[in-house]
Amino acid sequence: MLAGAWEGAPAGEPTPCGPTVAGMACIPAGEFIRGADRGPRDQRPRERVFVSAFWMDLYEVTAAEFQECVQARACRPDHPNYKNFSAPRQPMSGVSWFGAAEYCRFRGKRLPTEAEWEKAARTTDGRRYPWGNEPATCERAVIKEGEPNGCGRGTPWEVGSRPPNPYGLFDMAGNQWEWVADWYSESYAACGEACRGRDPRGPCGGKSPCPGHHERVVRGGSWYWEGDQCTTTTRRAHTPQNRPFHHFGFRCAKDATPAVRGPGQDGGPREND
User: Which domain holds residue 248?
Assistant: First the structure.
């Protein structure tokens, strides 16, 4: 584990993100290498970006956890009831961006920014996958790997079924695509200053309306996609309503305490649409 993976620290123990938060890992402040100079245009350019300290869920949100939000009438059941996709420990499947944002608010959290997500998946050494630079396999991630049934099941696996990355985060590659807060841009270069520098939040700071932008970003690949789609730099765009339904899931992030983040660092965008 990296010095910075404080997910196992006793409750209340100080970390670079403040007192520990159950079920979350501390991602310390600092620069990381975002993007790539090869491959699809939307991953370019490769450059250093600074991200303030924050917390990230260890696991993708499960179907059972999301149902708690629905029962509390804080989340809308706006997702399809896929057969064999809603076991309690399976990741939530088919949720819209709005449903993901509602759930995170219900838990006192938020969706991670795209930069936060990539740093949490990639750490600070520019690795191609959450585990390193070795190719994706079914032993490392729940992916398609040349089989029509996605590592043999044809559905997502229970969360945490593969080893974690150095920050202690599970399923940052494969299992389910994960919604992030940002609007999609065709490249970081085209996005301009909104995607550069310190704590970038993407077009319009992630807020709505955002003229000229109609799709949000999902990250990480899934059980239904090949391993080359679960790299730490792969980006995919989709309408936030998630119509027609795709097997998208998510996890939440949370700001570090203000004293830790520093003055003027107020975390990622708040989903207000």
Answer: 24-261
